[in-house]
Task: inverse folding
């Protein structure tokens, strides 16, 4: 939960800055808060996950382009690019290298049959492809305002992600196996008084 709140923090700041000022100030705030998160993790000696690096790089590039060109198109593409990169990594690793990224990340926390690991990876990749497409629809279809897109980006996508994750957890519960315990010391045979 702490990680979810930590990851959600820049989105909340982006939303607040947009409501107080405009999309360009909000973009500056998103860039600054994402960079500060990386620095915070570094100073605390905590591991920085690849997803954190991808997020900060993409917000700096697309947010920077938004500010430089004074065009919100770039920042509107940012969520789609990030989600589609996640999907590409999951699908590419599995189909081209026969590696399951989710299994590598989560195998110490849960044990699943191979086919379930593959389905889990594919469903998450599918979700990320869907989420990227939904972002484009809200951002560029002409049916939604900039204000509605910002609200959707901050809260709608987060709600979709939480609902999907809960659904995945319920589905996984039917397929989980016990994670084997780490081998401990071998007990010595008891002494007998013979």
Result:
């Amino acid at each position: 939960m702490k990680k979810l709140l930590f990851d959600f923090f820049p989105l909340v700041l982006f939303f607040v800055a947009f409501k107080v000022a405009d999309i360009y100030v909000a973009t500056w705030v998103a860039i600054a808060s994402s960079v500060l998160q990386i620095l915070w993790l570094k100073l605390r000696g905590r591991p920085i996950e690849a997803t954190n690096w991808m997020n900060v790089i993409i917000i700096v590039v697309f947010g920077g382009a938004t500010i430089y060109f004074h065009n919100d198109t770039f920042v509107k593409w940012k969520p789609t690019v990030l989600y589609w990169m996640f999907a590409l990594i999951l699908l590419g690793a599995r189909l081209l290298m026969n590696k399951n990224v989710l299994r590598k990340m989560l195998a110490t926390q849960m044990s699943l049959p191979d086919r379930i690991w593959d389905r889990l990876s594919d469903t998450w990749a599918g979700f990320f492809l869907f989420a990227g497409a939904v972002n484009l629809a809200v951002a560029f279809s002409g049916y939604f305002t900039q204000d509605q897109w910002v609200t959707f980006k901050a809260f709608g996508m987060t709600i979709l992600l939480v609902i999907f994750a809960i659904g995945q957890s319920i589905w996984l519960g039917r397929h989980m196996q016990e994670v084997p315990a780490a081998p401990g010391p071998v007990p010595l045979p008891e002494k007998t008084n013979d």
In short: Residues 2-173 form one domain.
